[in-house]
Amino acid sequence: MLVNGIVDVVHAFKVFAGEGSRVLGGLEGVSGLLIVPLFFSPSRYIDDSSVDSIYSVLRGLRPSDGLGMVLLSGGGDVDEAYLPARYLQRIAQGRLVVYVPRYAKSAGTILALAGDELVMLPVAELGPIDPLLYDAKTGRYVPLQSILEMLDLLSGKTRDLALAVLDRIPVIELGDYKRAVEHNIELCTRILASRMMKGDWEKSRRVAERLASYKQHSAAVTIDDLEELGLNVREARGEEEELLWRLYELWVENIVEVEKLTPPEAREPVEFKLGRGVVLTTAPLDLVEKAKNT
Fold first, then answer.
1. Is the CB of residue 2 less than 8 Å from the CB of residue 278?
2. Full-model pTM
3. Mean pLDDT, the chain, as a whole number?
4. 3-class DSSP assignment, residue 233
């Protein structure tokens, strides 16, 4: 749920909203695009509720000259990421450019590949798109392949420990790993063939298969890696680079670091508008209540 009043009660959010909006305005001037930021803090994932918030902010937007999305995301549910990716592809009547200042991992990679062009800082990274499982007890997404490997390792040693792991996981999803991989490949193929590799389904599928085949879910997929795959990606330079890096610095100082200071049990998910986009993060419970009552 959008809680725009949170900006007025959390000083760091106010700083980010003010300075970040100015930087985004500068990026619009440099790029000639309508810029939409979609920022997910480390404890926020791409899920059904975040898609609702994204749509509530973007609906009605119909840019005719081109659209630029600035994306920061650690990942989440690939099916939910597919929805805003396709929506952005639909509403961008001109060029669709995706900017990744630092990271767009896992399901965030699906969103990052939605454009005609991908622009990244030299240290930016995408990530593999192998399947994840959501652990409701920890509120985190866990690589499915890692769980399977761990269970295989434990099966011949400690039966009780293996059973304890299984007790936390939907077993039916473990048994459907191969289909889950194929599903992620199919979604990524559709995204690529719709814009960046328009109509080239064979090449799009080869890229998607490669992104689903990394040995580690945390692997960094760099500009060089993406160029080798044949994607339309380039490195941000000049003023464009300066603006993207400044935006990321503001993000770390005012959103990421602030989130770290509050224990998970003492914070609540919040979203607030930033320019034409949205910031999805968390805030201390008492400040969220204060914002809702103002």
1. yes
2. 0.87
3. 88
4. strand
